[in-house]
Amino acid sequence: MKKEKISTAVLWTCMKLLPAMLVLPASTLAQDTLTLSYCYLMVEQNYPLAGQLDLLAGSNTLKVKNLNKNYLPQININGQASYQSDVTKVEIELPAGFPPLQMPVLNKDWYKVTLDINQAIWDGNVTSYQKKLEDYDLQVDQTSVKAELYKLKKQVNQFYFTIILLNQNEKLLLSTKDQLSEKLKEVQAGIQYGAVLQSTADALEVEIIRIKQREAETQIDRAALFNMLSELIDITVSENTYLILPDPFLSDFNFQNQRLENQVFNLQRSRLEVMRSMVTTKWNPKFFAFGQTGIGRPALNMLSNNFEPYYIVGLKLSWTPLNWNANKNKRQILDIQSNILLAQQQSFDKSLKIQSEKELSEVLKALDVMEKDQEIIALRKKISHSASSQLDNGVITSSDYVARLTEERQARLNYEIHRIQLAKAKLSYLYNQGKL
């Protein structure tokens, strides 16, 4: 169904629905009631995956601290001992008659201990961009974790609504059993006076036993679901807890992709833009100040065999002016990666839009069906009342009466099922677009 073809009546019905998903703090939450939104809050806080958010933040803080150390002087202590097969010699031939010139002979074992200091004056903004990348990495990782936590809401919905449905089914079974028990008493009184056959009572008893079987099955299934819900949200939910059926408000039917996965795509593409800008910074020249002090034999005087202290200070330039189009190729690679992410994001968006159209049709269908359910229930109630009188007068058998009563019970159950389906369909519509 196209949005522009939705009837005014249906739209007005949806707009009149009031939100019932109120978040209740733990201190005010009654022990015997539970809301769906409170389950959402608990699963987001208590699920083990939530602990990663603080761990990621702590890791990011340490990484940024390490990057800031790039601005501090880098200090190294070096030592060296070596033995050489030969050393530098100075041989000067003098004219005849001159005494020989005595030149020092260097030792072949050399020793050196130095303290080296390097201080970055300008690193081409590489460190600044690295910190930006770390910031984007943190946002991507944390948003991805939140997206996984958000997906747990779908599982919460499944447990929550199934329990509500089982609770309603149990009420209807109990009501039907009570009606059959009352009718059985009337039939047994008729049997004593010979007005009703024993087979009529037997048929009613068989149906009562069947209902008890269904009650037992329902109680077992419900207990299992309560345990699973308790484990998921990490709080104990008693089987006596009343689950409030939410009635979320749909303000409009316009598709808006607010899913966290969509934010992850945007952050990843922004990160690629930073990396693209960073390619140029790596090409920038870098300036450093350096100093070295130490003691060695020989020291700066290569003709001395004594251990002597020395020092050197200076400036250094590092630049690779020609990288054979490597930067251009890197930018093209990053552009391709950005286009790949864009295609994935568009595919994700389209899938959500298709799913939202399906869920919207479920909402509209449930609204329409519930209107018909009301009419059917009214008619089935009349039929059951008439069948009860007919059974008393022997016009129909007990099997016929049970059939009419079952039809009324099924009509009521169908209404409750459709009411629950409506709430679930609206929540699915909101969940799909990231609006829960």
Question: Secondary-structure map with pairings?
Answer:
Elements: H1 8-15, E1 33-34, H2 36-46, H3 52-68, E2 74-83, E3 109-122, H4 126-192, H5 198-233, E4 242-243, H6 260-283, E5 286-297, E6 308-318, H7 326-392, H8 398-432
Parallel strand pairs: 1-4
Antiparallel strand pairs: 2-3, 3-5, 5-6
Q: What can you see in these coordinates?
A:
- A four-stranded antiparallel sheet has the order 2-3-5-6, with no helix packed on it. Strands 1-4 form a two-stranded parallel ribbon.
- Helices cover 61% and strands 12% of the residues.
- 17% of the residues are buried.
- With 436 residues, it is α+β, with helices and mostly antiparallel strands.
- Helix 3 runs antiparallel to helix 4 (126-192), helix 4 runs antiparallel to helix 5 (198-233) and helix 7 (326-392) runs antiparallel to helix 8 (398-432).
- It has a single domain, classed as Outer membrane efflux proteins (OEP) (Up-down Bundle).
